[in-house]
Amino acid sequence: xxxxxxxxxxxxxxxxxxxxxxxxxxxxxxxxxxxxxxxxxxxxxxxxxxxxxxxxxxxxxxxxxxxxxxxxxxxxxxxxxxxxxxxxxxxxxxxxxxxxxxxxxxxxxxxxxxxxxxxxxxxxxxxxxxxxxxxxxxxxxxxxxxxxxxxxxxxxxxxxxxxxxxxxxxxxxxxxxxxxxxxxxxxxxxxxxxxxxxxxxxxxxxxxxxxxxxxxxxxxxxxxxxxxxxxxxxxxxxxxxxxxxxxxxxxxxxxxxxxxxxxxxxxxxxxxxxxxxxxxxxxxxxxxxxxxxxxxxxxxxxxxxxxxxxxxxxxxxxxxxxxxxxxxxxxxxxxxxxxxxxxxxxxxxxxxxxxxxxxxxxxxxxxx
Length: 368
Known about the structure:
Order of helices and strands: HHHHEHEHEEEHEEEHEHHHHEHHEHH
Distance between the termini: 25 Å
Helix content: 40-55%
Oligomer: single chain
CATH architecture of the largest domain: 3-Layer(aba) Sandwich
Number of strands: 11
CATH superfamily of the largest domain: P-loop containing nucleotide triphosphate hydrolases
């Protein structure tokens, strides 16, 4: 994501020169401050503005979070694609801090919900209380909004609460609204849910069924930091270092950029590659699946995987300052999109093969 790459893209699309300076993000100023609104920019200028903002976001997050570059990129891709993420990682890898930092940099309201076995749906969506009108003396019901009424929701250990409570959050994720006592309350946009799971201890948990897992755009795995990164983490967190974060975007601008992603054109061959690739994960029915897919998978991914492959590819391209995605962008997001949408069978478990290993092998063997 260098300026040279942006310049080359501009020439490719007949610009001949860099877009107006009003499309840049300097010194933490948003496009609203540089011009009346992001909406005043053309789509091409907005792509360059987003590229500049993305680099600024990465720099701000790096003041707090050491490493995890790929996960940060995928989180931003999901947010701009209007998707949600399932984040799997052992405790202590700064999942909460990462999401809280992202919310600060984007000037969004952040809410964290710790899921427990006794958590009720009303603890998430909100509840009605009886209130007395001091003027008339009448008692009326008033709805008190729950923590789901925020822009970025961290659902910590979502598999530790019963299915009824899980369903309350997943319904809000899908519909972007909450219904209580016959009254519908629309959630504020943008609305982004990141649910975490601990991959180590599964006793007493309530695993999400496949139909609910399919509602998450990405399944991200958070790995341990490298030796050098862990040294830097210890140095910064055991000192008086207090980073000062600058706000790069706000809710209005993010909504506009989400719409911008939807307007990005995609070549038919890229869409056809995504559909064929997803079709190759289905062991029955279409004849596209190679033999190892038939041997190792019970079920493949559905059409929602194809949709998210294209949305993820679009967003990755514009974050890189490009105006349209190519097949390499689809391949780059295939792992987190498909990891939780394919179901390995007993043969795969006996051979010690995981879902992500199957996706990686399919990427190696599958050609456009």
